[in-house]
Design goal:
The protein folds into two domains: about 80 residues, no CATH class; about 140 residues, no CATH class. It is about 55% helix and about 5% strand. It has ten helices and three strands. About 10% of the residues have low confidence.
């Protein structure tokens, strides 16, 4: 299953199937779920039934019970993305940058610049580090077009859905510790590789950021109260 799906989704499939295994034989209970959850459970049960060779039976039971997939209106989804200015993300990013170390700022900026999802960004960042050490960065980063060519590494970035093919990443987007720079000069900086401990599915980096934010907020509030007293 890990060969066909990302590790995160493969774990989600196992979790859903373990919890809702009875729905394979009697899927009527799926109607009690909201659309998003119903679709996720349906995807997990469908994947499991295909893996075990029982998909035809499961599909027929869905038809018999009148269970249908929730369809998302494509126009509504498009308008939601267009009208979202990302203000919440920008605010979170600016707060995070203020409490992070230089090497952590670098990785977070990499995520922002590349536009990759969390696990893909971890895979990509570590791939950049590895290929640079092997003097093969050109296999991944097209300097002329200034793009990361993910499609060259199908096992990492191409799946059944939500594929990522390229990311436009300028060689240098700013200056100082906040830059994401693929030039040899930047790669020579000692802290560049210092977040290479990241691994796919590792949520701790982002959890730590949020925990630091909360602690920083508590500290700021306590300091303000002390000054008033």
């Amino acid at each position: 299953m890990n060969a066909e799906y990302s590790k995160v989704w493969a774990k989600a499939i196992i979790r859903y199937v373990t919890k809702y295994f009875d729905l394979l034989g009697n899927p009527v209970g799926l109607d009690a779920f909201k659309k998003h959850k119903r679709n996720n459970v349906l995807k997990a049960l469908s994947a499991y039934s295909k893996f075990t060779g029982t998909y035809s039976d499961f599909k027929q039971k869905l038809k018999d019970y009148g269970i249908k997939w929730g369809r998302t209106d494509s126009l509504s989804s498009f308008l939601r993305m267009v009208n979202n200015n990302g203000s919440d993300v920008k605010e979170w990013y600016n707060k995070a940058q203020a409490i992070l170390r230089p090497n952590e700022q670098l990785y977070l900026r990499y995520v922002l610049t590349s536009g990759l999802r969390k696990n893909e960004a971890i895979q990509s960042f570590n791939l950049v580090n590895r290929l640079y050490e092997e003097n093969r960065l050109a296999d991944y980063y097209n300097e002329e077009l200034q793009t990361l060519e993910h499609f060259r590494f199908k096992d990492l970035f191409l799946r059944r859905t939500k594929n990522v093919f390229i990311s436009f990443v300028p060689k240098s987007t700013s200056s100082g510790y906040n830059r994401y720079d693929l030039s040899p000069e930047a790669r020579a900086i000692p802290w560049y590789n210092s977040v290479s401990w990241l691994s796919p599915g590792n949520k701790s980096f982002f959890q730590v950021i949020n925990q630091r934010m909360k602690l920083n907020m508590v500290y700021s509030n306590n300091s303000s109260k002390s000054h008033k007293n």
